[in-house]
Amino acid sequence: MLTAATLVLTLGGCGVDPLTPQAARAEAGDDGKAGAESRRVDCARVKCIALTFDAGPGKDTPHLLDVLKEKRVPATFFLLGHKHVDRYPQVVRRIADEGHELANHTWSHRILTDLDEGEVREELSRTQDAIEGITGRKPVLMRPPQGRTDSTVSDVSRELGLAQVLWSITAKDYSTTDSALIEERVLTQAHRDGIILLHDIYDGTVPAVPGIIDELQRRGYTFVTVPELLAPGAARAGAVYRPEKD
Known about the structure:
It is a single chain. By secondary structure, the protein is α/β, with parallel strands linked by helices. The chain is globular, with a radius of gyration of 17 Å. It has 10 helices and 9 strands. It holds the Pfam family Polysacc_deac_1.
């Protein structure tokens, strides 16, 4: 998994210039304040943070959805097609029905920068079609595996109507089953306009979520989906979004 520092080098070396949530809001005019009365949350004024989950759905996703519903917290799910979307269509439908944002994490988690243009298109379009077949709606966001992107990935993403969303907070939950450690890592890195990366497929992750939510709410954070974090700006297809820490 890439660190934030590596991501900077990877993106910079490919000529891909990431945008921050603040920049997305500013693109809408008036520093993101225009039309605030029509939105659920105004992240230009409120201390927002986005909770995102990669590589699901999995066996623990229904319990995660129970937690999010109980705590009234929205999340963004970057779904993997093969053995996930196609295995758990009822869970995909539930994610959509309960108001969370569905997004694309490729079909088989291949590193997109290792592929040619046609292979990148196949990885993304198969998952687009699978999610649309279940929910009636194609995602508008994607997350490249390991955060690896380049100009080819950006071009194909633009063609498919997908903005690329990276992250600024990671618990590296793929490397531990210690829920307390996962919680600690997230809380230590938390910042305004941050995007938290977790995986609902690892055993230690879902048990850590209630504590993460409770503590961040105690600190005054409001949980939002990624589109809400960018509003009133809209994620531009092909563009890369990554928050910067204060």
